[in-house]
């Protein structure tokens, strides 16, 4: 038994093995799910299928948005299946636990679907890279932008788990820093079907703006019910993390004019358009890629470059150090850097949902309103309290 396990481990070390861990059946499955797996596979193929002269495998699993399930999968992958790196990982509670485990076992964790800014703050590790976005960039950025447009009084509708709390906190601070006022907040469980009682509280608050601090299908359900409730007649909804994939379900009529932050949109340039076309051809629903799926593609490419540079994938800290030492460059996010705290830096775009008559196809949904440079979009490294950053 032991000899067989040892033989299996030896064989696995002849390969570079990466795992895509996300929600494949629940509220975030459209936003990451199979799309993130396809993105990882495309990155491996585009890189040539090998790193450090070894074949690269992509495996995947569904964490079902349960921390114990996600942590159990990560432990099994690391301990018995010789996985070198875990990618994507929406659900901040699971992401924080896996980041901690990756440091203990000297593996690599690269978050794309994960949102919490703690990953590059107090909970940063030398084995973690946070690629696509975080709660600070989205919450602060939109909070400031909406107050600047006259939305002064806010009330928050917030998902009751680590990610929602963090997103609410960042947006509140952005609102207050810009001279706005927060009148209150209400918390709802993940996967809520009926938002009536929460929306009544928002309606009664007297706020101009209802900040929707949730994600995935929760965002779609709550915004749809708010429109049905008539809440949008007197109050404006701001979806702090309304992703592109949710807009077809809402419909352009309901969503038009809404503004979102994103570091990637498929229609930005020739490189993003070419990738989107290839991705959609492989996707079971022919969906176009969103920012988090694009982040998996770009981060896998950069990870493989670092594995090549180090000469292998077994020393996670060395691979992440190499990722930080090299500038990033890919067709989806362009040129960028990874800071000492693990934060990947690239511009963010303020995007507005098109009116129905402005859209020419199912995924022609957004237009760029403004570009925020990366060094302005993300939290200053000095403010994160990451132990890796020298004071």
Q: Could you characterize what this model shows?
A:
- With 391 residues, the chain is α/β, with parallel strands linked by helices.
- It has two domains: 16-133 and 268-346, Response regulator (Rossmann fold); 136-251, Response regulator (Rossmann fold), CATH 3.40.50.
- It is 41% helix and 20% strand.
- The strands form four sheets. A six-stranded mixed β-sheet has the order 2-3-1-4-5-6, with helices on both faces. The chain has a four-stranded parallel β-sheet with strand order 8-7-9-10, with helices on both faces. A three-stranded antiparallel β-sheet has the order 11-15-16.
- Helix 2 (33-47) packs parallel to helix 12 (291-310) and helix 5 runs parallel beside helix 6.
- The longest helix has 20 residues, at 291-310.
- Mean pLDDT is 92; it is low at 1-10.
